[in-house]
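U., I forgot to send this yesterday:
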Amino acid sequence: MLEGIKRIGPCEWEVPRGFVPAMRVPGRFFLSDALMETLEEGAIHQLANVATMPGIVKNSLAMPDIHWGYGFPIGGVAAFDLEEGVISPGGVGFDINCGVRLLSTPLRAGEITNRRALIERLFKAVPTGVGAKSTLRLSTKELEAMLLKGSAWAVDQGYGTAKDIVRCEEQGQMKSADPSAVSAKARQRGMPQSGTLGSGNHFLEVQEVREIYNPPAAARMGLSVGQVCIMIHCGSRGLGHQVCTDHLKVLEGATKRYKITLPDRQLACAPLDSPEGRAYFGAMAAAANYAWANRQVIMHMTRGVLTSLYGIAEDEMPLIYDVAHNVAKFEEHEVDGMRRKVCVHRKGATRAFGPGSHDIPPEFSDIGQPVIIPGSMGTPSYLLNGTLHAMERTFGSTCHGAGRVMSRSKAKKALSGQEVKEALENEGIIVRAPSVGAIVDEAPEVYKPSAEVVRVVHDVGISRLIARLEPMGVIKG
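Result:
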């Protein structure tokens, strides 16, 4: 237990003003007793530091997958007033719109008798790993269109259908994207990487629906026990990383120019309506669009493999939903009884809009937005729905995954990639990666238990469980 934090509910904690100097609002985080031992003191200090930023509204928030990040903690959520508030790349992260989508299939788990062949075919179809090059050959004009239109660009090129677009957060396109704010170096990095999975914690996983908690909601999303689904987790690749790097330098200067006092230079920021703030937002939105198009292309490649192996038509493999994890967006929320437009930063957090909210597909409007929470290679993933309680408490936000408890460098020292691979295969989970070394830093042991993380958000009421999906095989970046 950290000195100074206060328990205010079974799974809710407050970091009071004064925990660090100059806090403008209290911090709040959601964590069970079981997860408390995973809490990093540094992450709570980051949560408190965010509370010192100009124009922050209501609370600095963190979800149960909270862990140390760049500036903001991962699992952090903060909303800023349009006039007095700021925008910060540290509140979005380097992998802009790292996100996850879930694709359903008509296959039953028992029908996948050639599981290893399926994983091999997916591994060959989807470029994977550090430096993986796309099979797409984008022109400068095509990249520009991708940055502007996101998922719609990919569908226009034949990668998927119009039905996919409405099943994406923001319909797969932030209309405020400004490609002119994306540097030549970022474009150079992004050009050969469109339609690639990348490395790190990015993956494509074949899963089986193993348990249903909310039958009506699961039925609405077309899910039943024993069904095979595909989960895809990746982001904006080198382009997004370069956008963050480029604009961090600019915003570090802006922080001084606008005389903003911060406890950590990694919180570098600029007023939302400043030239520097607008430029970062436009570039970030363009990178977010790149990420949505990237996941759309990868999903199309996946459908192609399933069609060739099992003769399934494209329209038999609908996208359930696609959510962003690392993004800042202008949204309207109720604050102190008043509707206000604010800039919500979600850094390793998922939008979880409740029933009746805007930007939810009509077929889900009465149950809330689908929320997809991946586990690790050896632990379950979950499908949930957003709630009205999330709209009231967390600016419509919930957790984004299990949350790390061990750094990649520590994992490489403590674990053997070959042993991790063999242990997973003994559990019936086939893993394919560019090398066994790429497996070790994402081993199940380096994450919090996903079941406990989603139990917390379910019990707190900021999202509700619909289904549990277990891994059958995974290709890892």
